[in-house]
Amino acid sequence: MRAALGLRELNLKPVYYSDEDNLLQDFYIPVLENSVQYDRIAGYFSSNTLAVAARGIAALIKNGGKMRLITNVVLSAEDQAAIKEALRSREAEVLAEIENMEDELKKDHVRMLAWMVKKDLLQIKIAVVQRGIEHQKIGVLRDADGQRIVFSGSDNETGQGWLFNDEQFHVFCAWRLGDADHLQPDVKRFESLWNDNGRKVRVYDVSDAFARGFVKKAAQNNAEFAEISSRATEGVSFRLLVTGSSRVCKRQIQLRDIQEEAIEKWLSHDRRCLFEMATGTGKTFAALGCLERLLSDGNALISVISCPGSHMISQWRTDISAYGFRTSMVIADSTNSNWRDELGDAVRTMNSRANEALVVLTTHETFGASDFVEILQWADPKLFLIADEVHGMWTPERKRGFIDSYAFRLGLSATPRRWFDSTGTRELLEYFNCLGDEDAYTFTLEQAINTVNLDTGETYLTPYVYRPYFAELTSGELAEYEEKTTKITRAYHAASRNTERRKYFHLLCMERARIVKNASGKYLVVCNNYITG
After folding, report:
1. pLDDT of 71-121, one tens digit each?
2. 330-352 as b/e, with b when 16 or more CB fall inside 10 Å?
3. d(CA 127, CA 193)
4. Within 10 Å of residue 524's Cβ, how many Cβ atoms?
5. SS3 for 199?
6. Residue 383 buriedness (CB in 10 A; 0-12 / 13-18 / 19+)
7. How many Å apart are CA 442 and CA 276, to the nearest integer?
8. pTM, to two decimals
């Protein structure tokens, strides 16, 4: 883990909005990574925040840091049990050392909560208000140089608060001109409460709070929470932010009528279908519309989007953002050497329900890789597959990725049927529940040119005339083409049995294609037709 920079080096913003910023990645984890002390007053605390901010919490501890927490009387049953056990056996060692702290936090945040309490790395006190609740939300962080920042706003110390809720908070820095007047009162307020010097708030060590019966079990749903919180706070009701649904998509675009038709076709077809739509007619946003419908059901979901190459991943990321999604994302391809660890961590986070939506962007090559498939098979949430240019995926290596675990499936292609591969075509159509002639949603090139877009009053694609012109290979190019073809024929059978020979086979195919692509006769044809009009 890299050395801490110091809070002053982070270029922190004065205010953060969850609608515009990634609160976890842009603020919470970086400030934790560069601090040695974290003091927090939170209306609600859940140990799942340790999982979602594992990198930052682990860095804080490796920096020699500690955390002090003042929280409300409501804790989950699991967190209560972990804290009580830790208080009973402080001297027991849960871990021999902390080198794998980040992984441990992600894997079992309840156990790590107990470990942090035992090691005195996390001190917890319970705030009790006679006729109300502790509802302040203040965080104070200090680095090794003594520099401090304070943040205060709406967010609680939960995975839900940092990842999904609509939150905002202000940040005040000791070195920024004019911030001291806001920072110092919150620093003093924390110390006053921690030392139980408040006027209307009593603060108890967590063990004392347990003994006095102040701590209440967190609810399983909103209705139960309303009843518990009413009893716990003598009639003052409030809402637990960690329960209920959260918005992961705030749509920014207007879908066309044919895109809405495609989505309805997919929904009515058991959410397994092919979109056979001409290039340029909006397959991508139609697919994202299907994803939006799934997420609106409120269930945890892992969506895998497989692309022909890494260059297409960038386009999908742009379209996902333009559509309005705010979900966790993992890039799993050759450009990211850590994708296996990142994907494994993300799946474990989803399994612990610390997150409700994950998008995995990958390439067709990685999609069929055994380690990619194995990691996804660990997932507890349902899986949704979006296969872009799906006709290119049904090769012996790539089709291994089409596992039964994908509950929801969508294939995208202007031409889903594979040339000279009737068996592969049938298998592909069967996987996407589209063996019947009317099963796929179809919008052909002819339809796109001749159908009027109801939104714009124009056709979906501009009419055009397609005129083929033929160019011949030179004698030298033809000889090279025939030579490559002979080598390809010899390499074909070996490619099915040996990975290295398969790479050689693909290389030969690309070299032969390059002969046609760069044929010198093309330039003469282009020049002649340009001159003659």
Report:
1. 765 566 676 677 777 766 554 443 444 445 555 555 555 666 666 777 777
2. bbbbeebeebbeebbbbbbbbbb
3. 8
4. 12
5. coil
6. buried
7. 5
8. 0.51
